[in-house]
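Progress narrative, Year 2. Work on FAS-associated factor 2 from Seriola lalandi dorsalis advanced from sequence curation to structure prediction during this period.
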Amino acid sequence: MAAPEEPELSQAQTEKLLQFQDLTGLESMDQCRRTLEQHNWNIEAAVQDRLNEQEGVPSVFNPPPSRPLQVNTADHRVYSYIVSRPQPRGLLGWSYYLIMLPFRFTYYTLLDIFRFALRFIRPDPRGRVTDPVGDVVSFIHSFEEKYGQAHPVFYQGTYSQALNDAKRELRYLLVYLHGDDHQDTDEFCRATLCTEEVITFLNTRMLFWACSTSKPEGYRVSQALRENTYPFLAMIMLKDRKMTVVGRLEGLIQPEDLINQLTFIMDANQTYLMSERLEREERNQTQVLRQQQDEAYLASLRADQEKDRKKREEQEQRRQEEEKVRQSALAEERRRRTLEEEKERKSECLPPEPPADDPESVKIVFKLPNDTRVERRFLFGQSLTVIYDFLFSLKETPEKFQIVTNFPRRVLPCLPTEEQPNPPTLKEAGLSRSEVLFVQDLTDD
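Result:
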């Protein structure tokens, strides 16, 4: 039986799938999709849950064992530093502790029972993240209202954006989860987080992202990082091409101790960061080299294309010139044939040559441009057009010409014009019984 086909992904889900694969380095797209589906396509929670699994922290879908997981730095897992609350001192301290112990136990037990029952009546509103950036900005404003403007520079963006920027810039990312109701939160913020040395250290060495766990965005990150107590800090960096939690600091930590612990975590992982930087630089150099090669190839390709274009243009130009010559030759051939046909037609239409003893005959000797002579007789009463048609019918006569007398020199009006639509006769033109006329070539004109 064939397995049912998985539903097609939307464009937004496809983008999240590719982004999740890039952040975690997983090669299997099916595994990436299953992980995102388990987290209802919440990419921030899915990424952090995946990173936690690689660091030894149990997945939110795999409940932790009954005893807490002991993480060993020598085992290349996440470094964990927990500051315990100070033990009571002296008789008075122990007496106060023992007296308050039942009240604290009863208070926290009833509070847990109340919260557990409330979950069945009204779902936790923090489970739905609708405005993650607004959650972070709201926390920053409330923090400044309570503790003032002197604090480390908060990253004003979502947890996922902070991860992406830290990965892109190859910087450490310190995540702080603010527990509003915890008894040590206020002292940590005033005596540790807002001190000058801690502010200077954090601002110059890393990105700093913070949010309250009472906000949906902070609660979601809390579910991913699974802190044990507050205040909680997690150091995250790019390690082995994946964003990895490399240190966890929990409890009320003093400023000097905080700086020392963060410095220790950074020194312990500096080689990984340097390796990532060298590898990224090699990738960038390789990319630049490939880009230069591509540009050189494209330049060579464009040069070849330009040569081909010019070659095609030259070929097209030669073809057009050859076609022009061929068309010109065809036109000349048509003109020559038309001219020959016209000469034949004129020759056929000529009146017969009169006899030599005809008293009305005129003997004319024509001198052609090629120095040949042609002799023919005409009648005085014939139009000068007959002389012109006779000369036109000769093969030796040019296409365009005019007939000129020798002395006095004048051009005979053989062709009709607007002023003289009917050319004169030979007698009217003043020709004698014997004449020598010159044929002048007008073809060039």
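Residues 60-76 have pLDDT under 50 and may be disordered. The CA atoms of residues 367 and 373 lie 5 Å apart.
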